[in-house]
Amino acid sequence: MIAPESPAASERLERTPRWRRVVGDLLWGLSALFWLALVGTLWVQPDACAAITVFPVWAWLVPGLTLSLTAWGVRRQGRRGVAIVAFLAWCLFVLAFAEEPGSLMRSLTATSSENAWREARRAGRAVRVVSLNCAIGNPNAAREVARYRPDIVLLQESLNRAVVEALARELFGEEGSVVPGPDASLLVRGKVVAAPLPPNLRAYFVQARVQLASGLAVEVMSTRLVPAVFRLDVGSPDCWREQAANRRQRREQVATLVRRLEAIPASIPIILGGDLNAPQRDAAFRPFSPRLYDTFREAGRGWGNTIINDFPFLRIDQVWASRSLRTRKVIVAKTRYSDHRMVICDLELLQP
Q1: Which helix (H) or strand (E) holds 91?
Q2: Peptide bond before residue 269 is cis, with ω within 30 degrees of 0
Q3: Which pLDDT tens digit goes with each residue over 38-70?
Q4: Structural domain boundaries of the chain?
Q5: Is 92 a residue whose pLDDT tops 60?
Q6: For helices 18-44 and 61-75, angle between their N-to-C axes, nearest 10 degrees
Q7: CATH class given for the domain over 104-349
Q8: Please, which residues bridge with residue 300 across strands?
Q9: 202 neighbors 170 (Cβ within 8 angstroms)
Q10: 64 vs 111: which has the higher pLDDT
Q11: Residue 1: is its pLDDT beyond 50?
Q12: How many CB atoms lie within 10 A of CB 205?
């Protein structure tokens, strides 16, 4: 319960010009309506509102808190309880919809997951997946994955077949295998049986049944979905139409991937990852569930955003896995030759 204003506060309020009180209350109302509209939009994520959901959640703190602080400043006196409620509401908004606070907290928490993953890897029940956009086929960017000693590499904006095969030999020696594609490629320490795909599907993903050198068998997809639209003119109807159309294109591609997933036996672990070209929690990815889950949301640590490399504000590079694989750790690493950051994901096969 909010305590009533003191007599002194009431006297100061009476000295506040009426226009300030009216304008301040209007701004409080706008802040509340803005908060409710954002909550509804981010919860439902209709395609028509893709121009809003494409922005980082925390970016909306700027206009939201600006409205609230301006209302407080204009009014000058009174409504202290309303100001506190407004501040708490925006804090709750970030905690509910932004993943960064949770992943940053996980990075500070001591855990035995890394040791457990190493033990599982020695036993042949764990795998390290690295995903990277190669910045329009830059071989130097692709070679940056080597330092993390991956078992599976997912490349996007990939290199030509000869360079991909050479990179596999550098990484894995004679144990290396590849499934090259025009945009997405797959490199593994083990053997692959590539899924036959028509050219229109190979344009944005490759798929293979993988038998790792450790003996672990998984189905793997490397993908780069339709490029995102980056526009700041949210006041333009054309911006809203273009963003909605872009979301619908991505939904169609995801629907194709889901149909491929449905054809995979439930007993086969699945890894799907790459440059998905949409923010974390985007509604276009909801059809992946419940078969797959976003590994970073499960066990990501630190600042997980991947684009752009020097100032990452969105996590468009992601790794998803089936529930038969437990995520032990996911981190994102700054790169030198790409405009994306690299995703490093440690997975462990659950005991049957």
Answers
A1: helix 80-97
A2: no
A3: 999 999 999 999 999 999 999 998 888 888 777
A4: 7-98, 104-349
A5: yes
A6: 160
A7: alpha beta
A8: 330
A9: no
A10: 64
A11: no
A12: 25
